[in-house]
């Protein structure tokens, strides 16, 4: 099954909690705190692999999660960090953020990696909270939750040449003749329902990759005939070979077909329509009177296109077509991507900027405080220990929570709810 688009959910591992522990040795009756740090959560990394050809595995597994970090333990022992999760995708995969639609990265080279979500930082153990006045802290810092993100994977085939044209003009036949590809060939519409790739090794020239793009008919850019699903596969090509049925065996006018396909390219992406394009008039072996053929050739040349007369069945004109293709590829060189994006900057996950963000709202007779950092804070607190509760109150004060509550006219004995914790407010 050929799948070239997938939506997946990525969840990085959460950091382990810091440990709460005290030295308990035979000759050290008043041992100090020795709880170790929590391990970092595992990140998720995307990696391009040229051994893959489709995104089909993501059709059946949509959620991917990295390992959590382990909690810190006694003896100042840090918890083990979670293993990073490496997800392999085909070379040529474009990665987009579902929420914003922004392109995150373009994995166009074998082995290329991108860290897409970062694991959460591990919490500090209670040995880090000992002071001259608080020598036995019975609390530690909670781990940070790993990042979560929903992304869209789009596979865009890496081909030098895109073979375009209406169905049944001979694209699959031509591909099978000039490459070792074995596409399905028959005399009915939509024979090709997946893009086919082949490598052309012509004489002593460097080989090039050619793709047969299916589904291009009138209305393709709007989804007719699955055209919008396959047009993305010509976005990376340097050169387009536009194949026309010069014999009119399907009852269509070749020049009319040519204009319709180019209209679809223009509507799909204006930059794509500007790619270098040459025309191949195919099925000339079926034409007895070739005067009209040369009239068609002249009309296309008047429009500014190079035109080649070929027969994919007999091999007529293939030498000239392929020789010119190789020459043009050399002249064109590298081309700019069709899609515009500025790659995200890969950074180490730092949650502090989120920890300053919270909201306070009144629900019935309670004040509800919400913010991402509260989960970590609550995991850090031992509500049966006065020192730990004091730490909790200081953090709320430092973050401005109490100040915000007072702006909302909170009174003594009013209820405050943070995550799953409820308490009565006293100034």
Automatic annotation (TrEMBL):
Keyword Cytoplasm assigned to the entry: answer is yes
Q: Which domain of life is it from?
A: Bacteria
Q: Where in the cell is it found?
A: Cytoplasm
- Broad enzyme group: hydrolase
Q: Name one GO biological process term.
A: ribosome biogenesis
Output compositional bias ranges, type Polar residues: 70-80
Q: Where does Mg(2+) bind?
A: 172, 192
Q: Which residues form the Obg domain?
A: 1-158
The keyword Hydrolase is annotated on this UniProt entry = yes
Give the region (Disordered) as residue ranges. Answer: 63-82
CDD domains associated with the record: Obg
* Domain OCT stretches: 350-427
Q: What keywords sit in the KW lines?
A: Cytoplasm, GTP-binding, Hydrolase, Magnesium, Metal-binding, Nucleotide-binding
Q: A GO molecular function for this record? A: GTPase activity
Indicate which residues the UniProt annotation says bind GTP: 165-172, 190-194, 212-215, 282-285, 311-313
Question: What does the record give as cofactor?
Answer: Mg(2+)
Any Gene Ontology CC annotation: cytoplasm
Family membership: Belongs to the TRAFAC class OBG-HflX-like GTPase superfamily. OBG GTPase family.
Q: What does this protein do?
A: An essential GTPase which binds GTP, GDP and possibly (p)ppGpp with moderate affinity, with high nucleotide exchange rates and a fairly low GTP hydrolysis rate. Plays a role in control of the cell cycle, stress response, ribosome biogenesis and in those bacteria that undergo differentiation, in morphogenesis control.
Protein name (record) = GTPase Obg
Q: Which organism is it from?
A: Acetobacterium paludosum
């Amino acid at each position: 099954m050929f799948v070239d688009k997938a939506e997946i959910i990525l969840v990085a591992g959460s950091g382990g909690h810091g440990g709460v522990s005290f030295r308990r040795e035979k000759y050290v009756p008043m041992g100090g705190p020795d709880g170790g740090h929590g391990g970092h959560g595992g990140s998720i990394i995307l990696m391009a692999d040229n051994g893959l050809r489709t995104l089909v595995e993501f059709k059946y597994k949509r959620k991917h999660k990295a390992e959590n970090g382990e909690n810190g333990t006694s003896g100042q022992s840090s918890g083990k960090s979670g293993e990073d999760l490496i997800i392999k995708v085909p070379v040529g995969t474009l990665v987009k953020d579902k929420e914003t639609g922004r392109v995150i990265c373009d994995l166009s080279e074998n082995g290329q990696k991108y860290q897409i979500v970062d694991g959460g930082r591990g919490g500090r153990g209670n040995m880090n909270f000992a002071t001259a006045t608080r020598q036995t802290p019975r609390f530690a810092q909670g781990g940070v939750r790993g990042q979560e993100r929903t992304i869209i994977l789009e596979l865009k085939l890496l081909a030098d040449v895109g073979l375009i044209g209406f169905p049944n003009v001979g694209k699959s036949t031509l591909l099978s003749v000039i490459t070792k590809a074995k596409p399905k060939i028959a005399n009915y519409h939509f024979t090709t329902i997946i893009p086919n790739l082949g490598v052309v090794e012509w004489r002593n020239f460097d080989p090039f990759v050619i793709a047969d793009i299916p589904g291009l008919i009138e209305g393709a850019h709007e989804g007719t005939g699955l055209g919008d699903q396959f047009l993305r596969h010509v976005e990376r090509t340097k050169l387009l070979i536009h194949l026309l049925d010069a014999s009119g065996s399907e009852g269509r006018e070749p020049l009319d077909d040519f204009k319709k396909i180019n209209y679809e390219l223009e509507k799909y992406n204006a930059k794509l329509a500007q790619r270098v394009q040459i025309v191949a008039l195919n099925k000339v072996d079926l034409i007895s009177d070739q005067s009209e053929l040369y009239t068609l050739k002249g009309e296309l040349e008047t429009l500014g296109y190079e035109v080649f007369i070929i027969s994919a069945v007999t091999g007529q004109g293939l030498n000239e077509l392929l020789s010119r293709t190789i020459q043009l590829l050399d002249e064109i060189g590298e081309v700019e991507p069709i899609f515009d994006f500025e790659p995200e900057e890969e950074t180490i996950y730092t949650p502090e900027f989120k920890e300053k963000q919270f909201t306070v709202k009144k629900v019935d007779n309670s004040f509800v405080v919400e913010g991402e950092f509260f989960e970590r804070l609550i995991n850090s607190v031992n509500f049966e220990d006065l020192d730990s509760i004091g730490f909790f109150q200081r953090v709320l004060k430092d973050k401005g929570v109490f100040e915000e509550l007072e702006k909302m006219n909170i009174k003594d004995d009013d209820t405050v709810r943070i995550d799953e914790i409820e308490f009565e407010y006293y100034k």
